[in-house]
Amino acid sequence: MKIVALAGGVGGAKLADGFAEILSPEDLTIVVNTGDDFEHLGLYISPDLDTVCYTLAGIASPETGWGRADETWHFMENLERLGGSTWFRLGDKDLATHLERTRLLKAGQSLSEITAHFCTAWGVGPTVSPMSDQAVRTVVLSDEGELAFQEYFVARRCSPHVSGFRFEGIEAALPAPGVLDAIYEAEAIIICPSNPWVSIDPILKVPGILSAVKEKVVVAVSPIIGGKAVKGPAARMYKELGIAPSAQAVAEHYGDLLAGFVIDSIDRELAKDLGLRALVTDTIMTRKEDRIRLGKEVLSFTKDL
Amino acid sequence: MKIVALAGGVGGAKLADGFAEILSPEDLTIVVNTGDDFEHLGLYISPDLDTVCYTLAGIASPETGWGRADETWHFMENLERLGGSTWFRLGDKDLATHLERTRLLKAGQSLSEITAHFCTAWGVGPTVSPMSDQAVRTVVLSDEGELAFQEYFVARRCSPHVSGFRFEGIEAALPAPGVLDAIYEAEAIIICPSNPWVSIDPILKVPGILSAVKEKVVVAVSPIIGGKAVKGPAARMYKELGIAPSAQAVAEHYGDLLAGFVIDSIDRELAKDLGLRALVTDTIMTRKEDRIRLGKEVLSFTKDL
Questions:
Q1: Which residues in chain A have Cβ-Cβ distances shorter than 8 Å to B106?
Q2: Of A68, A78, A98, A118, which to mutate for an interface test with B (greatest number of B Cβ within 10 Å)?
Q3: C-alpha angle A189-A193-A194 in degrees, rounded to nearest 5
Q4: DSSP string covering A83-120, please?
Q5: Taking the model in full, what pTM does it have?
Q6: Where are the alpha helices (H) located in chain A, listed in sequence order?
Q7: How large is the average pLDDT for residues B268-294?
Q8: Least CB-CB distance to B83: which of A76, A82, A121?
Q9: What is the CA angle A112-A117-A120, rounded to 5?
Q10: What distances in angstroms separate CA B19 from CA A239, B14, B209, one per listed residue?
Q11: What is residue A226's DSSP assignment?
Q12: Among A43, A50, A92, A122, which would you mutate to test the B interface (most chain B Cβ atoms within 10 Å of its Cβ)?
């Protein structure tokens, strides 16, 4: 089965990793949000791309889900001593990714070319692609004004009250090379359990992607479980936007794009009110086996739609 | 006693460290070669400045003399995995210096401002100053054509046959702020045991520095001991330029600039032929005590001139 998975950070990366264990590399393309990308200390940082690649390479930190396993922080400690900026933590191993990517971007390579090159180096089989090679920047509209995503998310720890989002540069962005082809060739599109507002929406809003996705069987896995997000500010965002956070709210967010929806066993009673085919199963991916089991169930559910 | 020390890398840094242990911070200014500076992986790297600062801060690697003590190489290992450039080794701790300096330079600060700021952070008391805030680049003329200094020194491990040197940009360079004042106020100028061709000459050739130095009592410490350099390519350069490497050749290089010269005990018999006042003593600085003892002897010798 040939699929395209749309993914943001940790949750999306875990399910994508499950698919990677099941499918042949040529049957899986993971299109990743780059709205969180930013420049910091002169480095181009692409948090979701790195999380997906590190996870699939088996080198992600098992404690945090992002960053590198067995990371060291000697760079950061010494930067702090020099009075440098430390609100965004960069590990010694992780730094190699940012520095080399920045160098290659300056040398004229595209983000998708660099990602492909890194994936080869890391032994990642499936295609991992940024949603676009053009800069799209998620801006959080809040009671404290407009905030760049990482400022809201990391520096301010999601404390400003969210009123909406804006994806700067998205009108001029093109789907990265191969993304539309992969969607066209796919039997189904899986929306991973990532934040609908700031991980999946930016991907779908890159001109051309939504209309290509609409032609396909689309299945989403709810990132909201029992009214809460496993990780990240999705539930908080729903509340601040005046919507009760629930799997149902996620389904409504995607609307008639979905042919099927995957919800956690804890939300079992919501299944009948969704108005679409639902798979009810355990969706929290604590261990590697959980990713593979959920991946298999989602693929089998999707095949049956 | 108020002095200005002119220094390149490891040998110069060690003697400067000896002076720093003896003199009050306000009585010591170390003017450092920046002809070896270069841009690498998008970072501004200033090897001699870093060696001097790390040494005075007590954080230099005791094994190599350059780089940081207890350094780790996780960045480098991961850069190598990505196919990045690894000919110039950058440690995790050291990276903080390069990244923060590059960021501050891009933000409009000068190299001398940044060096002063870093010295405060590292607890370095004496003034450490780049020779100039303008870019001067040592180019090695060789049988393989012109080579940027680090390319000759690190990438090619000094294997090309040297025929001369060129200091790109030196005509337009100005002494860094405070350098001429420090020389003017100094009772003596000490030329540290650094490479005359590529560490001291660039400093002296910054317009204005040589004529200011000439007004002072100048003492040099020979970097050539028993016909050999303790570290680095000085002896090899002498040979390739057709001059037998010796303490005498160093004295001749500086010519009538010198009022006194410090040579190693091993070169004792050269003292009488130098035609200038000489201090004969042990000049190899293996331990911290050697630096202090040599520093004291050099200062006392200089005072007596």
A1: 42
A2: A78
A3: 100
A4: T---SS---HHHHHHHHHHHHHHHTT--HHHHHHHHHH
A5: 0.93
A6: 10-22, 47-57, 74-81, 92-106, 111-122, 149-150, 179-185, 201-204, 209-214, 234-240, 247-254, 288-304
A7: 95
A8: A121
A9: 125
A10: 65, 9, 21
A11: T
A12: A92
Let me know how long chain A is: 305
Q: What is the pLDDT of residue B84?
A: 96
Q: Within 13 Å and on the Cβ side, how many CA atoms surround B227? A: 4
Tens digit of each residue's pLDDT (9 = 90 or more) over A200-226: 999 999 999 999 999 999 999 999 999
CB neighbour list of residue B16: distance below 8 Å, 6 or more residues apart: B5, B7, B28, B30, B52, B55, B56, B126, B192
Strand order in the sheet with B3-7: B127-130, B28-32, B3-7, B188-191, B217-221, B260-264, B277-281
Number of residues that this document lists for chain B? 305
DSSP secondary structure, B191-222, as one string = E-SS-IIIIIHHHHHSTTHHHHHHTSEEEEE-
Q: Which of residues 119-138 of A touch B (CB under 8 A)?
A: 121-122
Phi, psi of B120 (to 5 degrees): -60, -45
- Supply the ipTM of this predicted assembly: 0.92
CB contact under 8 A, A100 and B82: yes
Going through chain B in order, the beta strands assigned E by DSSP cover 3-7, 28-32, 38-40, 43-45, 127-130, 137-142, 145-148, 162-168, 188-191, 217-221, 224-225, 228-229, 260-264, 277-281
**What CATH architecture is B3-144+169-304?**
3-Layer(aba) Sandwich (3.40)
Which pair of structure tokens corresponds to residue A209?
């992607």
Question: A166: helix, coil or strand?
Answer: strand
DSSP state of A152: I
For A93, counting Cβ atoms within 10 Å of its Cβ (0-12 exposed, 13-18 middle, 19+ buried), the class is: buried
What's the one-letter identity of residue A33?
A: N
DSSP state of B59: -
Residues from chain B that touch A117, judged by Cβ atoms under 8 A, are 82-83
For A3-36+125-143+169-304, CATH gives 3.40.50.10680
